[in-house]
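Quick one: structure for this chain?
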Amino acid sequence: MRVLFIPCAHRSHLYLSVPMAWALRGAGHQVFVASVPDPGLTTEDVTSTGLTSVSVGEPVNIGEMAQEEASKIAPVVPPATEPGRKTVQADYSNCDVRVELEQMARIYPVVFSSKSMVDELIAFAAEWRPDLVVWDHLMMFAGPAVAKACGAANARLVYCPDSVAQLRIAYRERYGSPDPIEKGVRDRFADFGLDFDPSMTDGDFTINTMPPWTWRPAGQHYLNVRPMSFNGPSAVPKWLHEQPARRRICITLGLTSRGVHSNIPSVENLFAAVAGLDVEVIATLAPESVADLPGIPDNVRVVEFVPMNTLLATCSAILHHGGAGTVFSALEHGIPQIILPSTFANEKFWGQVGHAEGLENQGAGIYVDTSRPVTAGELRDHLVRALDDPSYARNAARLRTELLEMPAPNDVIPALTRLTAEHRAAA
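Got it. Here's what it folds into:
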């Protein structure tokens, strides 16, 4: 069969879909990846994974657009939690879901799924005739329309707590249907002369790459698949060939930038937390993040990039922001995780809080409360606890074993083929 992937235009989102895309290729299916020209996801980024790229729509800069749109709105936050209680994923249902969904319905078509992009996607699909369209869960204003236009089955790809479903369920419980996302998708379908089917907003089915112990909205049915890390084309540096002489930890903040998230500890505080500890620290940071520092501790090596799936095999713990790719890499290697969720708008509810909450509940990680400033001393205490308390390593190893028992992307190809045939026949 022919399968069209539509990731959100960012490398990290593409990389989360690559294992499934290559499982399909390995099973003999044709796979194309369609994306809008964007600095965050170029044609070269796609082709460097070995997959075939289809460029659609006018060039954009989604990172800048997202920042601009976010600056126009006030964060929609849940009611304050009790003193001393950290925010959990379920709290997102208690925010003003009407405003939150209305903002998504206004911003997402502009930022992620422009009309020129969808126009060209529909035209391409009419010629190539995919059997299945797999769309990033942020692409609900593009993926279902393309599938509907060409009669393909369509699958939503979820790689974090299913926040969209969470908000839509909460909205329907309070206000009934249709919710703002359904209204927005209905209008988008009308723009392209397509008849609307309410089931299209959820996909014909959903592929979920979250471990079973993570938070999920009630009543959702998923095709569950093991999360697998993909770090992009990379080479292993020579210094990583040898095992470290002492315990090694990794510090990474993913693609977040210094100074954006007000309560995330500064790079200075992160380094102060590890200075003098009997550990080797590998900090993956952009050069500009350390350019104006007065100094770097002797036990810290700063690198702009190193493949996590190689680095973490040598690490005893990792401190990071809670992004899906980093979480999955750490789970694969069974190491404790210390997570610092973002404080930017509601970004924390799109994976970071859910990951941190789940890992802490499983005893395999520490969820650092960033709703208030976090000191270097606190960070040091968290790191020492994760390293010296053997229960963290033991539970992280258990989660790795459980992860390996989940069906890998290769294992679910027969189910994908069957579901595609069922829903394509009904199209």
